[in-house]
Amino acid sequence: MREPLLAHGVAAPSHVAIVPREEAMARFQEWFGRVEMVEGVMRRQTLEIVGREHCGKTWFAKKLSHMPECVASHFCRRDEPQSAESATLIRSIGEQLMRRFPNLVLPRLTTVTLLEDTPSALDHFLRLPLQTMPSPSKAVFLVLDGVEDDDTQLLIEMLLDVLPTWMRLVTLRKMNSAGENIEVLELDAEDDADFEKFIKAKLPQNSVDAVRRASEGSWFYVKQLSKAIEMGGLPSDVTLPDGVENMLSIVARCLPTPFADIVRLAKACRCRPTHKQLLAVSQMLIYRDISLIENDIRVIGQMIGMPSSQQSEVFDVPDIWLRFVGEDALRCHSAWAEHFKTKRRKTARDVCELAYHLSRSTTNPANAVKTLQSVGAGELLLRCHVIDRQTTALLKAAGARLEENNYDVVYACSVGDVSHLDAILRETKPVSMDICFGLLTAAARGNIEMCRFLTDNFPHLVASSCCGEWNSLRSAACYGQLDILHLLLEKGVDVDECGHSDRTALRAAAWSGQLAAVQLLLQTGAMVDRRDSEQRTALMAAAFMGHRDVVGVIIQYGADVNAVDKSGATALHLNLSNSSKHEDHAETTRLLLECGADCKIEDANGRVALHLAAYHGDPCIPLILEKHPAVDVPDNMGQTPLMLAASQGKLVAVQFLTETAHSDVDSIDNNGRTALQWAAINGHSPVVAYLCGIGSDEGHKDNDGAVALHYAVTHDDVALIKPLLNAQTVEAKDRYGQHPAMIASANGNLKVLQEILEVSDVVNIPDHEGRTALYLAAMAAHTDIIATLAPRVKDWSQRDADGTPLLHTLIVANLIYVADVLLSHGASTSDADTHGRTAVHVVASTNDVAAAKMLRRNGANFEDVDRGGRTALMTAVWAKHVPISAFLLDSCGVNPNRTDRQGATALSIAAQIGDRDMVNMLLKFGAEPKIKDGMGRTAMDVAIISGNDAIAALLQSANGSSGSSGIGSSVPNSPLDASKQRQRVTSSLRYNRTNIIDN
């Protein structure tokens, strides 16, 4: 079912979507889509994302990291020094690569090896394993966001040298080494249209130029300021200073008093503290009630832009605030030391953290040593320097032992140094897992002497699996190490040995295309149809990767060509579903068909081989149709192969299916959609033009009442919509009553909208909820669309189904700058809703002074009354909105003594709700306390009835009399008389009180 336009085309009125970096993303896609070949091999390419500080580089990099082509990413943080350490970065990348490529075997190296022998470690940890992987037809990339230090710079350059050419690098710092294969993508917010959209979305009440000057082109500072305004810390119309330092000072002044101390404590912590930890430590420096400190931490966390303030989450301080608050290191480190010292259950890490803070605090070194000895530091065995040498020295003084000779068993196995491993074994006894993983790595590298040494000395570990999946036999098979396979099989390893995933050595060799290894394993008796946990066989693995020769050998050994996996897919299904096509692919498909692959078998989605071939535009479609000539066979969703080919923009496949195979071009699926509509949905203009050219029905409506043009206009592509444009399709309405011009307006597609308006003027036709194209464009903040539609608009009130004018809705949604644009083109500030309320009543109810200023610039009448005779001032007073009330009285000069239809004044309302500040302000601006309402009651009478005695006394003083003129002017003779008098008055006026409240 197609969702209503508002769900995916226009943000809800109460929200403004974050502006994407569309221009930067387009430049990135252009770079990534460029494939440069040198002697038939992909050329190594690197992209540097550069720009001024806080221009959104990290945000953009994180957006890139979520792309499917990104295989790994690592973001270093200034407040987490360990995140920038080479060992942390290398391990992070390695773990992600193993998750992305399940057959990748990486050695487990110790921190000492990664730190002290980084170049060699990288060579064995990444370069050798990645070189043995099949090269994909499409490039992938890594994203690295490094801190500004030379060590990280050097590490990135070393990493660049070991990556294969098909794995590109995107880095967020300028590389020192120049090269033709390094390109630069600069994020310049000064000339960035996306940045202007972001300003308008986050700070609509401020001028774009003023925000640019204040933020110095930084997205971060714009977000910080908008968060402070959103939380009420700053007024929406705050005057912006020039420069980021001045802007931060303004934001800091509205933060809780302990702000600086709390941020300094977070800064002193080596790792980002949790809210619970920070609360515990803050009590040692900030002398306030714990509930107040807890609230301060919550407010600070929210206002400086952190995602959450839950106790279990970290207090994530942006680094600019760490610099802004300055240093108070000694006091803060002392507080953290006290925290770790008094912690009940201390881990080894807690003891190290305690040593770190003690070494930087005011604690006497001798006392620091005694403190560490008391918490068991003398029992620690340090395998390398902990945190830094200063901390390690203090721990050693407290009795901790530093193991100077830390041997890396896995690394010794990886490089194949038997003598070095033998020396290690004489001095220490490694754990079984290290030997197991060492054998695994040696087998992958083809280190025959090392494998022989390990199998002779540790025969019981020969068949062991690491992490429940990999064993040495599978590792050797995956990388085609025949000598290792012979050795392991001679040592008695079962040829079908597998881990918990049930993936055998045969399956690994078949997947990686190791023909000789496959032949050896089959000759040794490997089960040809042994299935893994997904019920897939070695034939399926080889077919998916398109290894024709391997497929042929496995079939010769009697493999079941038509076996199905858990999803109902055969080897042919898997072969056709791999979109990474290469030269052997068509030959593999042909071989499977020749060997009896059944094209009629349906997978779990009801798709036969032709569906998958059409979806990927496979060149073997004619061969498949020869075996199974049913061209319009539907899948479970009712989609035919033609629909799938059209949805993916496979023009050649579409042409073949329609011209040669005579597929029904207007066949519909379960949603009532045709191939033409699917091509339009995905924006494939060549396919749309072709289908229209051969007679596809562009006026066909799907189950949602939408024609192809409804979907095409969501793309800003004139070539896409031109074949679909005619008088009927332009005016066609879907089930929501929306015509294509409305959808184009909501999506901000100006060029497409202009093309539509050349065919038919549908601007003023509303949908079922009363919204027009102008309404949807305004709610999506597309001011250029408003300007285009303006000459054609007949009714500028643009009331929705509830009778609310568009101007009102924009103000409530905080789209003030859009409302200003709307008024400049013809909207009126006097337009009223069904209750007679104009825009001035709306700003009064929302307490929006910035919007009120905008209305005043556009000539609004702030004395307008609604159907109950209420003015904007009365509305503001009822809501207890002091800022907007003060603006109306002081800047707009409204009459405080206007009365509504019941004769009530703003002062009467303030008296009833008991707002003393409001009463004082109204009296200051000339409110008359003696005015009587329709029941003869003054403001003081209302205060008495409402039980607001303090307000009544204030009004009596303002009256200059001992009593009101409405009730009981005489002074009672006794308390009893006073009680009876109050009771009598209250009873006589009780039925009138409800009317006052309704006002």
Automatic annotation (TrEMBL):
Annotated region (Disordered), positions in chain: 962-985
Entries under SMART domains matching the protein: ANK
Residues in ANK repeats: 501-533, 534-566, 567-604, 671-703, 835-867, 902-934
Species in which this protein is naturally found: Caenorhabditis japonica
Coiled-coil residue spans: none
Record-annotated Nephrocystin 3-like N-terminal domain positions: 44-162
PROSITE patterns the record matches: ANK_REP_REGION (PS50297), ANK_REPEAT (PS50088)
Record keywords: ANK repeat, Repeat
Keyword Zinc applies: no
Classification via Pfam families: Ank_2, Ank_5, NPHP3_N
Protein name: ANK_REP_REGION domain-containing protein
InterPro entries from the UniProt entry: Ankyrin_rpt, Ankyrin_rpt-contain_sf, NPHP3-like_N
